[in-house]
Amino acid sequence: MPASLGLLAAAIPFARASHGHSTNHAIQPHLPEARAVRSRVYAENVTVRIEHHAQSARAHGRLRSSRNVLNLASADEPLPQSAGSELQDNVPIVFAVLTGKEHHDDRAAAAKQTWCAGINACIFFSDAPSATLPTISISFDGLPSLTEYERAQLRYLPVLDYMRELMTSDMKFGKTKWLVMVDDDTFVFHRNLASNLALTDSSTPIYTGDVIPEAWLPVDRDGSGNELGVSSNTLFVNGGGGSVFSRAAVEQMNTEACVNRSFPGNDWWRWQSDWMIGACAFDVGIVPLQQPHGRYNQFACTAENVQFCDNTEVAEYEWPATLHPVRRYAQMKHLDAFYANSSSRGVPIVRIRRLQQQGQDSNGDDGLRMDSLFSKSGLELS
Predict the structure, then answer these.
(1) Which CATH fold topology does 80-282 show?
(2) Nearest to 282 by CA among 249, 259, 242, 251
(3) What is the pLDDT of residues 266-301, one digit of tens each?
(4) Which pLDDT belongs to residue 141?
(5) Dihedral sign from CA coordinates of 276, 108, 77, 32
(6) Treating both helix axes as pointing N-terminal to C-terminal, what angle do 273-282 and 156-169 enclose, rounded to 10 degrees?
(7) Whole-number average pLDDT of the chain
(8) 39-43, 62-66, 227-231, range with greatest mean pLDDT
(9) How many Cα atoms within 13 Å fall on the side-chain side of residue 145?
């Protein structure tokens, strides 16, 4: 029987030793509608709390602060079934979808209603609670003053650490072979992805996706070309196109130590999240597995400002597993409608031609007609 995302909390392990000390930097939970709170102290006196959120206002978690202990407080009654995707036991591929409060109602909602809807394998992580997705929220409080960019980069490794704990300790994930981390503006062709991963052995440590060319190293800029004042010389996967990990890779990576290295004052501070994940894998001898061109796509030509798309009138992607970025609600819905049943049927090729944008984007409108999707998406698909 499927279990709602909120019910996952009941099977999370209750305690784990930490390398931390006193909790000067506490990450405060949003307690309303919280199902459960996971609290872990990392080094540098930083506590990370990850909370499950439900649709019922009566489903309140009760937090007990304690250093070095994962606290889990269950609600007085079971959570209602989620209005969207439900996570089945032992899905072969589980997806961690990272979003933010500013995109709960557009990008994340679109992902939930489209490619996530048919596979029952998506867990949404955010910086804020959402009862309708629902989300597992991660919030940072008490750290030195951080920019929005810095806070966003810090979220990814705690999510990877959390998913490692689920996959290694929770019987609901006992047969899960793959973890895929994606952004809320990533469209996943699930059948293509599953077929691609079937060619490899999940019992070997594999980290794959849209791997950067080695000629790009060292990297010292963000995705918009802005210099960051720091650099990395380690190969990594472009996360928007999906960061894919085999079970063996997840088990082998020392994700807790990697989280520690991401905090202010440590050697990965101010790195992009993709760099950190690549370095975390490299630390245990895992090098990104290259994929054929067009399988995992960080830079799909869906908008004028996407890198490497300046002179591209028509873009083609052969057997794509992912497309990124798909930033507009109508674009996500249009892809899902045009390539119907892509969760269960392979899509050999995707062709995209950008059109002059017409009309306003819409979110939450399941009644959009195909002609409306076509005009509002600004994409011609074939």
Answers:
(1) Spore Coat Polysaccharide Biosynthesis Protein SpsA; Chain A (3.90.550)
(2) 249
(3) 999 999 999 999 999 999 999 999 999 999 999 999
(4) 65
(5) positive
(6) 40
(7) 79
(8) 227-231
(9) 0
Q: How far apart are CA 89 and CA 78, in angstroms?
A: 17
Tell me the two tokens of residue 234: 């380690």
DSSP output for 93-159: EEEEEE--GGGTTTHHHHHHHTTTTTT--EEEEESS--TTTTEEEEE--SSSP--HHHHHHHTHHHH
Q: From the CA atom positions of the chain, what is the Rg in Å? A: 20
The domain ranges of the chain are: 80-282, 296-381
The C-alpha torsion from 118 through 124 and 227 to 218, rounded to 10°, is -70
Q: How far apart are CA 271 and CA 220, in angstroms?
A: 9
Residue 94 reports pLDDT greater than 50: yes
H-type alpha helices, 177-231: 190-197
pLDDT classification of 339: cutoffs 50, 70, 90: very high
Cross-strand partners of 237: 211
The residue whose two tokens read 């995109």 is 103
User: Which of the pair, 233 or 29, is modelled with greater confidence?
Assistant: 233
Tell me how far apart the alpha carbons of residues 351 and 334 are, in angstroms, rounded to a whole number.
Answer: 13
Of residues 376 and 164, more confidently modeled:
164
- pTM, rounded to two decimals: 0.81
In what helix (H) or strand (E) does residue 180 lie, and over which residues does it extend? strand 178-183
- Range list of H helices, the chain: 107-113, 148-154, 156-169, 190-197, 247-252, 255-261, 273-282, 329-338, 370-377
